């Protein structure tokens, strides 16, 4: 993608993010303040990019899954499993390397499970991942024994609350993961192949794409991202909370992907745009906390903001907005679903 | 004897401990305990109670997820002559419909916490931030109400920010971080009141990461008395916690035994103690005593 | 005038699909709409029926301007349409498909019996004896097409529009359709007929309208133009040389470098058969609809794994477990149903062209952008694919151009054995000749080709030998002088062939 | 035999088989009590699943229903507490609101061409948020009419109760069957599920149908809310979290394809009863810890779906 087309692709997300920030700073004018104290950057924007880490990570994997016309409802539960595995192995004294390895492996295995159900057993993605969504928390609790499994390891908790050059480590992790996945899919042909199976699985298989293996790989990627998110969540509170880690985060992740302008019907995707979507959601969440409304208003505010964003980004509205903003020639509306499509 | 136990879920360490303690108590007494986890949903609990009745158990323990909505199923149990004992939370139904209720008074817990804070600040100006439990849950509502009652007389104490932390560590930490941001890096906060210890533990980390000393710069008071908060108390990072004992089943089984033996009707409400623990109450020892209870 | 358009204009991003087109349809005439792939025929139809919103211009129905916003409204006026590509709803029963929107009801409840009776009645006259209670998807494409026609005919009180209705019909069914059309013409309906089969056009039409690049070129009474004139009008130039019906001698090349299929087949789909494919050979495959030609092709390509037999070439056994291994072995397969099996609608023309090559190279070795661009532009030029640029999503191309993109995809892999299932279906005369020439070219370079086609002339023109398939069995192989439309027809015509679809 | 009905037959067979297995282990499972409970306890789920079935067959999904049930309970409870309205009047008002709510979601889905998953997800937040705004307490409902409704049951031999709620569910399923299989609207729903573009070209009024589908789902969610409020005689904004997923699971177990276009209303009833059966079995067993409960539910869900797939493949290959 050239710079211009990339910018055109993510422009709606950038505008939305800007708008949300402006909105928040109306209620909380000190929003932009960032100071450098105790070797770390402190400020609301820093909070946002730190707190947004789990959703951002989940959104990376979710983007790929959704690009294949799937959905992964299990990521929250997978976070819990991986966090619990990591905490367990630290607790057993196996050290941080083993903990990370175990968490990563657990995430990959969960992804493998989902992927096999979808690709080889032909179970519909929502149902296939619903199974792990339900059972996964049970597995996580099995590991923690139902308690919040706490541990004492400063190296491990560094992953959750440490900083690198003043930047929170979770932020560094999601940005690096985003870049890593971005390069992986765009510098190789993976991105094209994923988009292809998302649009037309049958035709792609006939064109020689190994769609089953690719599907499994995509779900494993999602599992791996969930593992990273789970590690961060666990390290952050120095304990594995099997019940609450990542609870309902799958919905936020899906929302992030959609706000990122990716179609739930599969096909074209942009990880960068999903990450922006995740930041939009986190800005809303943080903004609600800062604004100081009674907490019973939280959901309604979030719902209304999300609806407004979605309406403004909807394929039916975007062309009009583009006409308003760029009054030059008639621009292509990439998001427009083709009329003659399926 | 077969006794059915309908538990709310396993959403917190405290509840896991309650489950463990109940199972242990049952085992000690040779009771065949049928356990059912309702995954936080009342409809599952009602269905479980109905199944217990259909199965013909001798008695039912239930930790109701919410106070309302129990009338008809309790009536069914009464018709089937199965005594029901409520654990740790109350219901709105007529007391005739259950044998007894074992629990603590949630409002009272909040009040104890509030009163502690009043005495701790000793008349100085104090801006308090509050971490609420899950919006709409009865502990969140009652503990908020109790705390407000506890500080009602003290004009020097004011709740400046109150948000839900969903009873979890993660959210406790996250919300505390934004409180700290919003209150001048935490300099304007004098105390934290958390509806449970888990949120307090998360918040303590947030306070530490912001470069402040929890327990000194910001007073921390919370409820439940789970093991981890005693560690914090021992380290001087928390100041007080109000105990909610997980052993509700012991008194319940006692009452049931007496009832089965000679029909003794227990009191309608068996209140457990809401003991206040501070740094002075041998937190290290308390931690050791609790750490294996399944919290 | 029954139905007219005045200066109808419709543009899509990057394409002016209709440029001030005026068109008149009289009552009681069959009016053929002709043009190359992408000329705008389907678009014109869709504007007429409200499926697309026109940019400007008028539509007049009996002189009154009308503004159909949806097919529903068009139906209310009495316009029945068979759209190109859009079949019916495969998940509904035949009866439901036929009666959708006008089911007989009582007190708001559908009467199943009456619905079925109505459906039977609608199908009467098409020689179709099927169970209307079964889902449409259990019947072959041809049956589905006839059902679509029956539905449109029933809905067309005043106007009937047929967009390439005969593409998947055999000669007998075409005649049946024409009988119905003639009958409707007598009853005073106006009928718009689109087809790339010029013989059919001349057989049934009263007048012809030719579109080119979205513009109205000419309208003539059918009797006034001849074939060559018509082609010249459509293409805007003379067709260099119309492929003559001729047949070539059998390739007697060494069978050493041949691919030998022995006893491959699939239970319930195609009986085991033998086939030897020599280098530089074109094998035709003929048969009625539903005879099992597609099934043969699928087995040959590994799209459906064979459950018997062996495949070998000079270097030993060939692995054909799935399309991927077949492609690795140098096979290629352009399927018959391009919409579900061929195109990746949302991806660009470029990406569709390089897809198979990329899949074969593996994900880790992406084809460089510049190379992709070069390849795409090369094939767009070579196959004359009508698209504003290589980045247009292929789903937005016209039907025939999509077919060419699929062809380009497989040529790009430079296969040694190319299977083409109905490669010229829905393709205009110009492109038709182009594709036949292309086949000649690649065969000259040593590629082997299997062509499945319902057009016997075409088969005879390109094939060295022809395999005839009947009732899911390979019944005969015609070589040398036996390859002629006549002999093929005789081989196909088995005593008991009926149109009834198999179980 | 009708090929399309195969998943339905598979579902029924599996349900009966599972019931037999349960019965062999716990004979009390066949008592009228358990059967009565199965209907009553799953009444709200069954009703909401009727709406969900229509939505899913049309190729959509409705994630808002769980929240709408909770909102309904709160709305009824608060209105009964604050005003002197008769419950029936409140019900009418509520059903109007939830139907409009559903219609609004359907309208957004159609007009803005947005995926149902996302629109109804926002609806889910909105409905629960609206519940919170009414009250965060659980509000008891104390009304003679509610008592009457709760006491309206037929005592079967063996003390099993055939309740008004269970009856309402069965009636809803029958209504759903008629709507889906016997009306033009129903055929349009299948048509949409078969392919929206094609359906449009065949003259289906896609917009109107979409709005009606989600309105119907909203109506059923409202009705489920009423049933739930009778069931618990209270309104509670935190109630029925995640019920939408149960409903989807029930519909899928009932043999309806999530991709739309195929399925039967009766299958959904079986799906709901199957879910209830799993729940009952776990309670009867009574030895599963909290976490094993979750794992077992997941495993059983998987087993049902695989069995169904297996049976289908078996039948189709013959
Ligand atoms: N939905 C659409 N979006 C963008 N472009 C379109 C769309 N539909 C058609 N076009 C373009 O409009 C032009 C006319 O297409 P149309 O389908 O009308 O051709 P046609 O004459 O029917 O060709 P064919 O014989 O191949 O069916 C083509 O260039 C095509 O790419
Ligand atoms: N999935 C299926 N299940 C059952 N029968 C099928 C299925 N697919 C196709 N058939 C039947 O198999 C027969 C062969 O169909 P098909 O149309 O592919 O044959 P063909 O010889 O390639 O014909 P053509 O290519 O001319 O349409 C038809 O009778 C069709 O009804
Ligand atoms: Mg066309
Ligand atoms: Mg075929």
TrEMBL record, chain A:
One Pfam family of this chain: BPD_transp_2
Keyword Phosphoprotein among record annotations: no
Domain of life from the UniProt record: Bacteria
Keywords: Cell membrane, Membrane, Transmembrane, Transmembrane helix
Gene Ontology MF, one: transmembrane transporter activity
Keyword Translocase attributed: no
Compartment(s) where it occurs, according to its Swiss-Prot or TrEMBL record: Cell membrane
Transmembrane intervals: 14-36, 48-66, 96-123, 130-151, 171-193, 213-233, 245-265, 272-293, 299-318
A cellular component term, taken from the record's GO annotations: plasma membrane
Membrane topology: Multi-pass membrane protein
PANTHER family on file: ABC TRANSPORTER PERMEASE PROTEIN YPHD-RELATED-RELATED, GALACTOFURANOSE TRANSPORTER PERMEASE PROTEIN YTFT
Protein name, per record: ABC transporter permease
TrEMBL record, chain C:
Pfam families, sorted: ABC_tran (PF00005)
MF terms (GO), sorted A to Z: ATP binding; ATP hydrolysis activity
SUPFAM superfamilies, per the entry: P-loop containing nucleoside triphosphate hydrolases
Assigned GO CC terms: plasma membrane
Swiss-Prot/TrEMBL keywords: ATP-binding, Cell membrane, Membrane, Nucleotide-binding, Repeat, Sugar transport, Translocase, Transport
Topology relative to the membrane: Peripheral membrane protein
Statement: the UniProt record of this protein carries the keyword Cell membrane: yes
InterPro entries, A to Z: AAA+_ATPase, ABC_carbohydrate_import_ATPase, ABC_transporter-like_ATP-bd, ABC_transporter-like_CS, P-loop_NTPase
Residues in ABC transporter domain copies: 3-238, 254-496
Subcellular localization, as worded in the UniProt entry: Cell membrane
Protein name: ATP-binding cassette domain-containing protein
Organism: Frigidibacter albus
TrEMBL record, chain D:
Record has Membrane as a keyword: yes
Keywords: Cell membrane, Membrane, Transmembrane, Transmembrane helix
Keyword Cell membrane (UniProt): yes
A molecular-function term among this protein's GO annotations: transmembrane transporter activity
Species per Swiss-Prot/TrEMBL record: Frigidibacter albus
Name listed for the protein in its UniProt record: Sugar ABC transporter permease YjfF
NCBIfam families associated with the record: PRK11618.1
InterPro entries per UniProt: ABC_transp_permease
GO CC terms of this entry: plasma membrane
Subcellular location: Cell membrane
Membrane topology field: Multi-pass membrane protein
Transmembrane segments: 6-26, 63-81, 88-111, 117-141, 162-180, 211-231, 291-312
Pfam families: BPD_transp_2
Domain of life of the native organism: Bacteria
